Amino acid sequence: MKRYLIIAVTLLNIFSGSFMSNRAEAESFPAVEVYDKTSRAVVLIYAQDEKFATSIGSGSLILNEGLIVTNAHVIMDDKTSKPYESIRVHFRPDKVTGSFNLDLKDWRQAKLVAYDTNLDLAVLKVQSFPSSVTPIRIANADEMKVGEEVVAIGHPEQGGLWSLTYGRISGMIQNQSNFTGKDVFQTDASINRGNSGGPLLDRRGYLVGVNTNVARLALDKMPITGVNFAVKSTVVRSWLNSQGIKVAYGSAPLKATEKSESLTEKITAAPEKERPVKVEPLAPKAAAPPVAKPIEPPAKKEPQKEVVVEPKQEQPIEKAEPKIEKKEEKPTEKPKEKSAPGSQVKPKIDAPQMKPEDRILTPKRPYTYDDLIKSVERDLEDMMEDMRGRIKRGR
Asked: Total structural domains in the chain?
């Protein structure tokens, strides 16, 4: 009898351990699956006017009608307080390589449908999009609690295109910046310039917020990390409905149950028959006007509501050290280097006196705004040149 009791307890422990392990595995955040099923619906937005002012951000395709939700500040020129004249959106390739020429091939010209600067929301429309893209469903933000896991997808400056960051809902704020109705989630998921307008997603791959701004410096200039904000999906849906754009919440449960289907089926809830057929990109005539090759001003233009980032550290100063060493070796023998008065003063300059903020603390990341903007502009130049050649051959 004692032997049977021991066997029964052992089997119970094994079963219990297996059950708890499966439950823990089911509860773990499926970041890989969420990315695979939603990142194609996340676009890179490039806005420009005829004076070469530019803006770069992210957006989410949310309806089969080709509607994309993003931030208002992504498509607004803060100098004129007007929308940019040309807006184009780039869809994710099958494989992200890090090469602009390859990753930014698939683009469409977009039309601005509506925007609200107080809520920092805007909606764009494209006439077509790749048939492999499934729109992202909208979540009911009221289901989310502090501590829920989330991910953000976007194009952070000096990071990678279509990159994913992970975090949690850290808090909730009503009427952010004293704008009535602008209710936001606070999250510690990493968000930077280039993430603006991109989605904050839950475990179902549902959009729970539109990433809008960040906090980087306190009033006393102390650095702040992990304090980022996203406009709640309930605010997004309410605003879209007020613009005559009807959007329904997704119906999949937030927490997985024993009878729940796989995440793949939940995320791809959009009916197959509603997906548009793959269409070629719009005619080149809808592209932005020809652009001059040297473009310096774009580096000064960035989305305004999250420009509280640390100063750029892109100018290494290691060149100063070798110059000093050469002058110290022969301070008086070479008159070409101001031997008499200057050679006695220059040795006082030494490397330890360099300002801390000028030091290069980290290696250069995959891309900068300048590189991205120049790549898009070269693409436009090549397109215009090709059009000119076709016109001449047609004659």
From this structure: 3
